[in-house]
Write a structure and sequence with these properties.
mainly alpha, globular
Length: 188
């Protein structure tokens, strides 16, 4: 029973943080002149929370073991990057888009592998994960390459990247995390 609660908590955490990422993405796309220092603080906090949820997910044992398969290393990386952004914002502001881009690119590529594994498992909605993973990875690549002529465009693409990451993680949580209810809970 404790395992089922851990999987439920990890899934709920994924859903909530995914919706938050989507919201931050919309804000950044709507207001591309958003404060970069505040963005560092928000991103740092989000990375720490998302990293902690990834670690909980990794140590849970969901049925398919797809959603959380890469989350030990990625969770630790997220937490470390989050603390870096929170406590050394002035030193990393100029590379914030690269940090976010590398994280999105990496997550997109890992989730593409998750989609292919989901296909082998016979999950019908594997293609949703694959398509959102490609979009997220491409957004991350754009941030790393930085072909933009101004800060506002860069901030808008950062918002698009957050939104794409939110949708990607939402798809993964909803399509691959299976929680088996016990007979006792179904009848009780």
């Amino acid at each position: 029973m404790r395992n089922r609660k851990t999987v439920k908590a990890a899934k709920l955490g994924y859903i909530v943080t995914s919706l938050f990422l989507c919201g931050v993405g919309v804000v950044l796309m709507a207001w591309p002149k958003f404060s970069v220092k505040m963005l560092c603080q928000m991103t740092g906090t989000m990375l720490i929370v998302c990293g902690a949820i990834k670690l909980v997910g990794y140590f849970s044992r969901d049925l398919y073991r797809l959603a959380f398969q890469f989350d030990l290393a990625f969770g630790l990386l997220s937490v470390a990057m989050g603390f870096l952004l929170l406590f050394h914002a002035e030193g990393v502001i100029w590379v914030l888009h690269v940090i976010i881009g590398v994280i999105a690119l990496t997550d997109g590529l890992f989730k593409l592998q998750t989609a292919l594994d989901a296909r082998r498992f016979g999950l019908d909605r594997w293609w949703m994960i694959a398509s959102t993973a490609v979009i997220s990875a491409l957004c991350g690549l754009l941030l790393v390459a930085d072909p933009f002529a101004g800060a506002a465009a860069l901030m808008a693409v950062t918002g698009l990247t957050f939104f794409a990451e939110g949708v990607l993680n939402l798809c993964v949580a909803l399509c691959t995390v299976k929680i088996i209810e016990s007979k006792k809970e179904e009848n009780g």
